[in-house]
User: Fold this.
Amino acid sequence: MSAPFGRRACEVTANVSSGGYRIFSLRDREGPNPAPGQFYMLASEREWGEGGGRPYLPRAISVAEAIPAKDGVRLDFLVEGVGPGTDRLCELEAGERVWVTGPLGNSFSTPREVNPESAGAILIGGGIGIAPMAIWRRYLVERGIPLRVLLGFRNEAHSGGLNELFCAGGSLCPDVRLASEDGHAGHQGYVTDLLATMLAGDDATSAVVYSCGPPAMLEAVRALCAEHDVACELAMESPMACGFGACFGCAVPKPDGGYMRLCVDGPVVRGDAVAEVAHA
Ligand SMILES: Cc1cc2nc3c(=O)[nH]c(=O)nc-3n(C[C@H](O)[C@H](O)[C@H](O)COP(=O)(O)OP(=O)(O)OC[C@H]3O[C@@H](n4cnc5c(N)ncnc54)[C@H](O)[C@@H]3O)c2cc1C
Ligand code: FES
Assistant:
């Protein structure tokens, strides 16, 4: 699905705290419904780049949920304040407006599109990267596609979105398992420990793995899937200036030489289309 030309102003309808993150909602009266994995370029209408200061450019944020409503679609975003742009988005107040461009980028493929023999999906999200897994999970559940979800957090201060995006009737959805490095929730350790155990099982090769999270986690997921010959799609990040293919700011190397622009050739990339996910 392609983005409508130009940007549009959308009203903030809510902004709540969740763990160490914020979840804010926009009412989008004009845009098409996003597909899971897509993102938007966002900038608040006021207090954004005023006086030539930062933030200047809009910031890329994945859509975590999209709920059709009679007056358009409600878009939910999960955000962590790590600098001037995300800090400003964390402060958004109901009633103010945000400049929105999108939905942008490609989206996840269904397990059968990736592998016609596939029996289901394993979703694995880390930190703020659980956002696109939420809308993808709902899409798969609505289509009756079997799935398991693994979510990991560094610690309680770097967690959030579980109650709002992965709970039903006040309880964690039964297909969701947790890991935390500090042991505050679920398995103590990396979420990729859970994936390694799962991929060692007999039915591993019939699954398709989908992942979003910090680069070190994505690289561990990519390497585990390659080792077990399991197909995977990774929702990747790189610094983005335009979001629609014009600036080449988001270029990442391809394994066979050359570069891809992550905003238009991604952000969802097949694991075998990257040599290694770069991380510090
Ligand atoms: C497709 C996509 C989807 C994203 N989805 C989300 C989301 O759902 N929620 C969320 O909180 N954040 C998301 N991000 C990350 C977010 O866009 C960046 O953290 C944000 O642009 C940082 O801006 P800032 O002004 O707050 O901080 P800055 O001061 O600009 O950056 C803070 C630090 O993060 C680094 N950085 C900035 N942008 C990126 C990037 N894109 N990749 C890696 N490092 C970066 C900078 O080098 C710096 O070290 C997404 C990024 C992309 C590309
Ligand atoms: S962000 Fe400009 S080309 Fe990708």
Summary: Residues 39, 55, 59-62, 78-80, 82-87, 128, 131, 237-240, 267 surround flavin-adenine dinucleotide (ligand 1) (CB under 6 Å). Helices lie at 84-90, 111-114, 131-142, 162-165, 191-199, 215-228, 262-265.
